[in-house]
Amino acid sequence: PAWLRRLCGQLLSERLMRPSGVQAVVRGIMEGTGAGGAGAEAAAVDWRKCDTVAKILASCPQQCLSLEDYYRLVCPQILDLLHIQDKLTARQFQRVATTTLLTMAKEHPQLAEKHLLQPLLAPLQRCSE
Q: Where's the TANGO6 HEAT repeat domain (predicted)?
């Protein structure tokens, strides 16, 4: 029903914009993926889940006041997904992070540059100066 969809969307949005919310949502959705069979079918399911999670993260929720605020709150958390130490989850989290980054860069290039690409490339830029 529509009311349930709205309520779930609102709860998901609230969680994403909290500290460590992105990681909690990704963990919740991806839990159990990739740990079992390593066949082609399991890998395809894993990729589809990663793409779906990336689409969720790249979409600004209706409850957010502005797209800029959403990017400011969520993008640092997306970059943190690249630094997960656990090898089993790191691969999935890196897929989600890179797919989200690409999606955001296509949809809102200026905001993605400011909140994702500049922080990501800052160490390289410092070394080249």
A: 16-129
Q: What is the pLDDT of residues 33-61, one digit of tens each?
A: 554 445 545 555 678 888 889 998 998 88
User: pTM surpassing 0.85?
Assistant: no
Q: Is 41 helix (H, G, I), strand (E, B) or coil?
A: helix
Name which of 35, 37, 114 is nearest 74 in CA terms.
114
- CB-based contacts of 85: which residues, under 8 Å, 6+ apart? none
Domain boundaries, the chain: 2-127
Question: Is 74 within 8 Å of 63 (Cβ atoms)?
Answer: no
